[in-house]
Amino acid sequence: MAILEKTAMITNLAGRMVPEIVNGRSETPYMGVGKYRPAVPKASPPIRTAADYPANGDKRVPDLETALRKCGLHDGMVISSHHHLRDGDRVALMALQTAARMGIKDLMWFPSASFPSQSAALELMEAGVIDHIEGSMNGPLGDYCTQGKMRGMGVLRSHGGRWQAIQDGEVHIDIAVIAAPSADPFGNCDGSHGRSACGSLGFALADSIYADHVIVVTDNLVPFPCVPWQIQGNNVDYVVELDSIGDPAKIVSGTTLITRSPDRLRIAEVVACFLRDAGIMRDGFSLQAGSGGIALAFVSYLKQMMKQAGVKARFVRGGSTKYLVELLEEGLTDYILDGQTFDLDGVKSLAANPRHVATSPFTSYNYHGKGNFASMVDAVVLGATEVDTNFNANVVTHSDGRLLHGIGGWQNCLAARCTILAVPSFRDRIPVIVDDVTTLCGPGELIDVVATERGIAINPRRQDLIDAVRGAKLPIRPIGEIQKEVERICGGKPQRPKRSDRPVAIVKWVDGTVLDTVWQVT
Amino acid sequence: MAILEKTAMITNLAGRMVPEIVNGRSETPYMGVGKYRPAVPKASPPIRTAADYPANGDKRVPDLETALRKCGLHDGMVISSHHHLRDGDRVALMALQTAARMGIKDLMWFPSASFPSQSAALELMEAGVIDHIEGSMNGPLGDYCTQGKMRGMGVLRSHGGRWQAIQDGEVHIDIAVIAAPSADPFGNCDGSHGRSACGSLGFALADSIYADHVIVVTDNLVPFPCVPWQIQGNNVDYVVELDSIGDPAKIVSGTTLITRSPDRLRIAEVVACFLRDAGIMRDGFSLQAGSGGIALAFVSYLKQMMKQAGVKARFVRGGSTKYLVELLEEGLTDYILDGQTFDLDGVKSLAANPRHVATSPFTSYNYHGKGNFASMVDAVVLGATEVDTNFNANVVTHSDGRLLHGIGGWQNCLAARCTILAVPSFRDRIPVIVDDVTTLCGPGELIDVVATERGIAINPRRQDLIDAVRGAKLPIRPIGEIQKEVERICGGKPQRPKRSDRPVAIVKWVDGTVLDTVWQVT
Questions:
Q1: How many distinct structural domains can be found in chain A?
Q2: Pairing state of beta strands B356-358 and B379-382?
Q3: Chain A, window 379-408: residues with a beta carbon less than 8 angstroms from a chain B beta carbon
Q4: Rounded distance, CA A320 to CA A336, Å?
Q5: CA of B378 to nearest chain A CA: how many angstroms apart?
Q6: Closest Cα to residue A55, out of B412, B117, B217, B507?
Q7: Which residues on adjacent β-strands are paired with residue A155?
Q8: Per the CB < 8 Å rule, is A376 touching B37?
Q9: Residue B239 lies inside a defined structural domain of this protein
Q10: d(Cα A12, Cα A35) in Å, to the nearest integer?
Q11: What is the pLDDT of residue A224?
Q12: How many CB atoms lie within 10 A of CB A45?
């Protein structure tokens, strides 16, 4: 499959030029928030029969190659993997390298995210084993894509968007390879026990339900039943035992630490103050914050304020960390609803505390369901690489145009009642507030507050928030004013990226439409 | 839809005459165990979008009529319900009666089972509101069907077969009405808490996933999130609050008592002895037994033997009762894998003990998955209304031809490694062992042992079992010998039912093929 360099481009509702055809598929340009309505039914996987599976439930085969061969692996197939083992994962790359040894070409790799430790996938792309990656590409893989070296086009989706794409039949997975910290011979999988425990396995759930073939790979085989079965063996074809599915030290970082930067601590504190003073931090409220240094510090500040005010949350959403676990254990929240688990405290809590509940992208984020959890969250605190003065934001590329980050659940979280970007006003002397984001990932109408160390800007569309904090001792400022101040400090606006007119990747919106294009960097 | 009295009949592989067309659908005759292979993909429900659902997650509407109207209820639709509230359920009938008040006709009611307390459905059938029922019919509703009064034809499916039929698109549910002992405004449901707690809600899971529209009805609304969410709000359209979804006294019987009949106690004991002496009761074994008096007594006997032998089960499958809960709490099993919960001890245990795990017909029974739990069970003890000398068995009709019982998980359980029918040798002076069963529900090749108070018959196909108990002090006898003895006592063979040649219902096999026909009784 060669990249379609001559793809016709069209301007979408956000004013961005996007390709009409991507990797051979017709695409729908972004039509605005909540405007696109799906008209087709859900994907319908083949019906299997128990007659074709061992009655004793033992689906083990000797190795990954046997499993892939039994799944009918051939050129051009779509192979999926999940990233709950993060930079410690060994299984996804092993599956792709096994395919390479089997002489397979032109695969589409469909990870829920890819990481620097999987850089050997670059060689597989050079060799034509992998045609292209659809999925978040962190670091070197994304960089390779923006260098224009990938044969097919990158497709970046949010966690919810990945579920939507699978569910809606936009991506048909031929073989899902699921790394499981615990599994039984039937294929039931659990992520919260075993030496490679990573907590939730939710990112692999859609794969297990919709893929034609499902291979479970584990380094901790337990007798049936493996409980809880986050992945159901009834969807699994083969089980492979390995000595190790990953490097535990890199699965959970153990180094998820609060920032020490005074500027970033300041941002964290003003965000917490904002939630308090705007009346969002009230009994029964809900909250989501990620695992970055600012977000962790924010949770820490907010916790103090919650205690002072005698306020308890109904639920907090993870990525879970020890800071969220402390909220749960100290009775400051009824529940953690956990999409992925970032540290060992999170893993232990998920395994042991029935109020620490594993979620999936279906429950949390899928826009093509009958609602989802994300829009019920009172406040979410997120990062961004860039934000413009209309509150449009970028989370995947740097100002030099290089694709270095995945979307994660970021786009999905924008549905929260109050979305706050907590960002330093500049990084490496490059302003974060720009006239026009390099890549549009989130429409400004969904971003309510931009909090920097130089002040808090409230989106003028949110008069209710502006009114709510009137009179509070908060550094509320127009976003343009913060921008100008930062430009003075940094010596002007950031340079525009030197990019070609050749699209190398697209950014999907949560409804599967094309929000923006990532261009080859020259 | 008028009953197709002139439907062409065909003889299936079991030698039973079955209709080729049922309620307008072409049917496949039974082809033998494990012979039919599905050739079509799974059903594909419509794709929804969060844009059409309230962002705050509040899907409540004032009443059931509003919900039904918003779901677009019209003549001829398929309305489904579940039976976890058993004879105490108020919701299914309320939904149907509401439809009647709205002037709706010709509905197909698709319950997971129907009960005597729902006899008012007879009036709705008389009035043409309900055209026919597809689902187990216990008592008066089944009797009505065999009297030939139902317009359409009854279709009896096992729990696994019901999942299969929905999943495979054989039955398309327009509106699922789900009674929930706890629910939040988003529609997440839990069955194990609340004043109408019934334990598992697994029978409603397929409905929630595949129905076009899903209404949750609860008498215990809790703030989001309702945990655990056995039914996911992401599949739910509307939530209705009622004062009461059922009569708790009839939801869990509280009277699930061990039989006092000396004959039946004797059966229970020999079954336990058989499992011990055949070497099935060994460390790590697994077991399923129902809620009847014999089954409960059997569990009690087996428990003593397990203690004596120092043997522990890996898992026991419910219908859970206090007898299974005792096994769990006394460390005699690692897990209860629970499909439905029969008494208050079961409900409390499911709510509190992480080793008491709710299952669904998908995990436990669906034959059109990549295997299921049923075939991994070492021994299952079941009842039957009749069994013939080739071990073919009947569980739905009496010898007079009347349809009075549902199939439940009975057919699915036949996949166990050792299937034991524990039955009295006669009831009301009518022999249970017959030359030819009135209705074939289970092929004899899957039934290994028939245990009566007059002896144990082992299926000659199971030479391994015959060998295993050689020398044991067990009353092993040929089935024909028991039959003859009982016929002497009862004064001969049972009378053949007086039946017409008009089919009124069919019995599906676990793969969706037609195993037998139920005929109008004259």
A1: 2
A2: unpaired
A3: none
A4: 8
A5: 9
A6: B412
A7: A134, A506
A8: no
A9: yes
A10: 12
A11: 98
A12: 18
Closest chain A C-alpha to B314 CA, distance in angstroms: 8
Q: Does B424 touch chain A (CB under 8 A)?
A: no
Query: Of A191, A219, A251, which residue sits at a domain end?
Result: A251
Residue contact B225–A187, C-beta within 8 A: no
Contact A483, A455 (CB under 8 A): no
pLDDT value for A259: 82
Residue numbers in A near B363 (CB within 8 A):
229, 232-234
> Is there a single domain that holds both residue B375 and residue B297?
yes
Domain hosting A129: range is 31-134+171-251
Q: Do B457 and B419 lie in a common domain?
A: yes
- The alpha-carbon gap from A338 to the nearest alpha carbon of chain B, in Å, equals 12
The answer to whether position B520 is within a domain reads no
Q: Are residues A266 and A360 in the same domain?
A: yes
pLDDT for B4 = 46
CATH number of A243's domain: 3.40.1080.10
Beta-bridge mates of residue B178: B216
Of the candidates A53, A366, A367, which has its C-beta nearest B371's C-beta? A53
One-letter amino acid of B481: E
Q: What sign does the CA torsion over A162, A165, A168, A174 have? A: negative
Q: Which residue has the tokens 């012979």?
A: B35
Tell me: do A373 and A235 sit in the same domain.
no
In whole angstroms, what is the distance from residue A188 CA to residue B470 CA? 37
| Same domain assignment for residues A190 and A307 | no
Q: Is there a contact between A36 and B47 if contact means CB atoms under 8 Å apart?
A: no
Residues A111 and A214 grouped into a single domain: yes
- In chain A, residues with a C-beta closer than 8 Å to the C-beta of B186 are 371, 373, 376
The reply to whether residue A314 touches residue B223, judged by beta carbons under 8 angstroms, is: yes
Check CB contact under 8 Å for A235 and B369: yes
Question: Distances in Å between the alpha carbon of B21 and those of A207, B162, B437?
Answer: 37, 18, 23
Per-residue pLDDT of chain B (522 residues; tens, 9 = 90+): 444 456 799 999 999 999 999 999 999 999 999 999 999 999 999 999 999 999 999 999 999 999 999 999 999 999 999 999 999 999 999 999 999 999 999 999 999 999 999 999 999 999 999 999 999 999 999 999 999 999 999 999 999 999 999 999 999 999 999 999 999 999 999 999 999 999 999 999 999 999 999 999 999 999 999 999 999 999 999 999 999 999 878 887 655 678 889 999 999 999 999 999 999 999 999 999 877 889 999 999 999 999 999 999 999 998 899 999 999 999 999 999 999 999 989 999 999 999 999 999 999 999 999 999 999 999 999 999 999 999 999 999 999 999 999 999 999 999 999 999 999 999 999 999 999 999 999 999 999 999 999 999 999 999 999 999 999 999 999 999 999 999 999 999 998 888 899 999 999 999 999 999 999 998
CB of A473 within 8 Å of any CB in chain B? no
A342 falls within a domain? yes
ipTM of the complex: 0.96
Q: Are residues A286 and A244 in the same domain?
A: no
| Cβ–Cβ below 8 Å for A234 and B35 | no
Tell me which residue in A228, A237, A357 faces B227 most closely, judged by beta carbons.
A357
B113 and B208 inside one domain = yes
Hey, what are A391's tokens? 């509150």
Q: Residue B410 is which amino acid?
A: W
End-to-end CA separation in angstroms for chain B: 23
CA distances from B375 to A170, A190, B185, B306, B446 (A): 35, 22, 38, 22, 11
Of A48, A55, A314, which is closest to B368 when you measure between CB atoms?
A48
Residue A19: pLDDT above 50?
A: yes
Q: What is the chain B residue with the closest CA to A39?
A: B47
What's the pLDDT score for residue B6?
Answer: 66
Mark which of A210, A228, A251 sits at the end of a domain. Answer: A251
Q: Please determine, for residue A105, whether its predicted confidence score (pLDDT) is greater than 60.
A: yes
Q: Looking at the partner chain, which of B49, B214, B362 has a beta carbon nearest the beta carbon of A368? A: B49
